[in-house]
Amino acid sequence: MRTLGNILWHIPFLGFLTAAFYWLLGLVLTLLVVTAPLGLGLMEFGKFLLAPFGNEMVSKSDLDMPQNPLWRAYSTLVMILYLPFGVLFVILNALQVFALCLSIVGIPVALVIAKSLGTVLNPVNKVCVPSEVAEEMARHNARAEIDRRRG
């Protein structure tokens, strides 16, 4: 089913062009150095868009990836400056999701765009992982929450 979804995403709806656009935009922003945290996140988002059915975008902090505190602080600053643009992009993507849901064939593509709204709003410090990894992280976090509530 994932393969069929990815084919539908790429063939009639040209998802590979969207992936290439975000990846190249991320590359340009990374080369500008000042916007590197944003660029790296957009490059990961472009990687996600190459196979959106079967992958998830997760935060590096959810993966417990070690990060330099200075890089984290700088990333937060860049994220705050990007926020107005992110809100605009989310509104445009939400309108696109609504329009795609008007046809049956557009619903799977609308799901991809809806699934990625959080990343469009804030691509900083996000990575693309297989869905199985994201599911295992959710299970682990749920188990930790249960243990915390039990005492």
Shape: globular
**How do the strands of the widest beta sheet line up side by side?**
1-2
Distance between the termini: 41 Å
- Write down the secondary-structure element order: HHHEHHHEH
The average pLDDT is 91
Main pleated sheet: 2 strands, antiparallel
Could you say which structural class the secondary elements and strand pairing correspond to?
Answer: mainly alpha
Beta-strand content estimate: 5-15%
Summarize the SSE layout with pairings.
Layout: H1 2-10, H2 15-31, H3 36-50, E1 55-59, H4 69-100, H5 107-115, H6 117-121, E2 126-130, H7 131-150
Helix pairs in contact: 2-3, 4-5
Report a brief summary of the structure:
The protein has 151 residues and is mainly alpha-helical. The chain has seven helices and two strands, in the order H-H-H-E-H-H-H-E-H.
What features would you describe in this structure?
With about 150 residues, this protein is mostly helical. The chain has one domain (about 1-85, about 125-150). It is built from seven helices and two strands. The chain has helices at about 1-10, 15-30, 35-50, 70-100, 105-115, 115-120, 130-150; strands at about 55-60, 125-130. It has a two-stranded antiparallel ribbon. The radius of gyration is 17 Å and the shape is globular. It starts with a helix and ends with a helix. The relative contact order is 0.16. The mean pLDDT is about 90.
What keywords describe this structure?
151 residues; 7% strand; 7 helices; two-stranded antiparallel sheet; single chain; mainly alpha
